[in-house]
Amino acid sequence: MQTLTLMLLFISPLFLPFSTAAKTPQDLLRSSCAQARYPTLCVQTLTNQVTPTTKPLDLAQAAVKASLTRTLTLSVYLKNTLKSQVKPAVESTASNRKRVALNDCVAQITDSVSELNQTLNELKHLHMGTFEWQISNAQTWASTAITNGNLCVNGLNRKGAEEKVKMEVKRRVKDVSMFTSNALYFISKLGESRNPKPHSNSKN
Ligand SMILES: *[C@@H]1O[C@H](CO)[C@@H](O)[C@H](O)[C@H]1NC(C)=O
């Protein structure tokens, strides 16, 4: 069993470096990012991450880490913003709704943090036997993290918020979701890398 697992690891392209024929890290980085949802951001994020021995798994983990870091920063920003909203002596319905919207954002983005953390943990503990299932879990969690960001922005639009706060939260949520979209791309690529012929339609 042990030997079989080792053999599978050895022959799996997932655990092998990219082909390195006469390619500089910069070339590898650009070609890795070319199909990402946000290629320029992708290159910026992964500069210094790509070496000739970089594997699809490394890229996926690095992209998820980048998204997780940004999402954590966003959650801290939201918590501080919520704290700074002084509760008026006489609460109006409108001011209450605004605080509820921001409070919902804190909860939603806190969920995103834990979803991205789960995504990263999944990518750190991939096993051959459960690989596809784990990739699918990672995709679900990362997508849910994006959805939570959208729910936050929709809530602010619906329930109201100070215009300045709303614009800033929207900008930050958008920024974070760009990182997460790129991470999703690398998770999908990692999923495909398991199959040496992704375009073949063989039914096994
Ligand atoms: C992420 O998950 C790990 C392992 O479960 C845990 O130790 C860590 O505290 C989590 N980090 C965050 C930011 O949730």
Task: Give an overview of the whole structure.
It contains seven helices and no strands. It is mainly α. It has a domain of about 130 residues: Butyryl-CoA Dehydrogenase, subunit A, domain 3 (Up-down Bundle), CATH 1.20.140.40. The longest helix is centred in the middle third of the chain and has 32 residues. It starts with a helix and ends in an 11-residue tail after the last helix. The site of 2-acetamido-2-deoxy-beta-D-glucopyranose has 4 residues, from helix 5.
Please tally the β strands and state the result.
0
Any guess at the CATH architecture of the domain at 61-84 and 95-204? Up-down Bundle
Strand portion: under 5%
CATH class value of the domain at 61-84 and 95-204: Mainly Alpha
User: What does the overall shape look like?
Assistant: elongated
CATH topology of the domain at 61-84 and 95-204: Butyryl-CoA Dehydrogenase, subunit A, domain 3
Summarize this structure as a short list of keywords or feature phrases.
204 residues; mainly alpha; Butyryl-CoA Dehydrogenase, subunit A, domain 3; 73% helix; elongated; disordered C terminus; binds 2-acetamido-2-deoxy-beta-D-glucopyranose
Could you provide a short overview of the structure?
This protein has helices at 2-11, 25-33, 39-46, 56-84, 93-124, 131-159, 163-193. With 204 residues, it is an all-alpha fold. Bound molecules: 2-acetamido-2-deoxy-beta-D-glucopyranose.
